[in-house]
Amino acid sequence: MSILGFLIPLALLMGLFGLACFFWAMKGGQFDDLDGAANRILIDDEDDGPAKAEPARDTR
Hints:
This is Cbb3-type cytochrome oxidase assembly protein CcoS. Pfam families: FixS. It comes from Novosphingobium colocasiae. InterPro entries: Cyt_oxidase_maturation_cbb3. The chain crosses the membrane at residues 6-25. The longest helix has 24 residues, at 4-27. The chain is 48% helix and 0% strand. By secondary structure, it is mostly helical. 0% of the residues are buried.
């Protein structure tokens, strides 16, 4: 039973540490743009259209 006197405060301290880390990440802007990275991969940066094939070379 004496181990509970150690484990309960330890669990509370770990929970407060996790909560502090969460608020620190919120303040740092870690959760500002959740959809941006997911949508950025779908956007094509080049508007040139399909790549043109090079003409075949005569290899004689």
